[in-house]
Amino acid sequence: MKETLVVDGIGRVDVQFSQHGRGRPILLLHGGGGPGSVLPWGELLARERHASVMTPTHPGLVGTHRPETLTDVRGLARVYAALLEQLDLQDVAVVGHSIGGWIAAEIGIAPHERVSSLVLVDAVGLEDRDHPAADVFSGEPRSESGRALKMYAGNLMEPTLRRRLSASKMPPTLVVWGDDDDVVDREYGRAYTNAIAGAELKVLRGVGHAPPFEAPELLSEVVWPFLVKHSRV
Predict the structure, then answer these.
(1) Which residues, 6 or more positions from 229, have their beta carbon under 8 angstroms from its beta carbon?
(2) Cα separation of 44 and 168, whole Å?
(3) Is the pTM higher than 0.70?
(4) 122 vs 22: CA distance, rounded Å
(5) Handedness of CA 77, 37, 161, 110 (dihedral sign)
(6) Among the residues of 30-91, which ranges form H helices?
(7) 187 CB-side CA count, 13 A
(8) Which pick of 50, 88, 131, 161 has the fewest CB atoms within 10 Å?
(9) Contact yes or no for 96/58 (Cβ under 8 A)
């Protein structure tokens, strides 16, 4: 599926996405592994729960078009907020993994009545000098998708994010972390949780940086009750 959006400060953006299931709307945002890294988990959630899961591809990845004016994670957050507006979706849970978690956090910072909850799964974006994110984009990426990701996310840390999270009235937020994450460790996950007033932290034992791939059933068991609890319907 594809929607053409007009986003303030960015202009026209084509967003491609898949959609599975019916029920509670969930915007599922992928990380550096591309949409295929979270799509099977989204399909599982749609199949086993009363959920409608929409999984977009970040513009510029997997052969999609990126306008030159779309250059960072904050821009991606504005694009996906505009997508929710255009589709007239309400009571949306935004779930993001890795870079997708960073995008979800940026969506939560901007007041948005359509978003009822956030789930940040091994998210990056926070600057933590004691527990820095691994520099996964060192060197020159070889693929078009890799170059787009490096442009969007840089070194995976944004110096103003912690302050903006702490100063914002965020939707109810669940932070989910793999205990064996070798990209951003568990203490990084605690720092993310502490930056968001009222956020909850769930640690998945024996799981690494990619819970949607490594432990899909466990991730569903942790995430779904939180989404139901904070549904406005």
Answers:
(1) 172
(2) 32
(3) yes
(4) 26
(5) positive
(6) 39-48, 73-87
(7) 7
(8) 88
(9) no
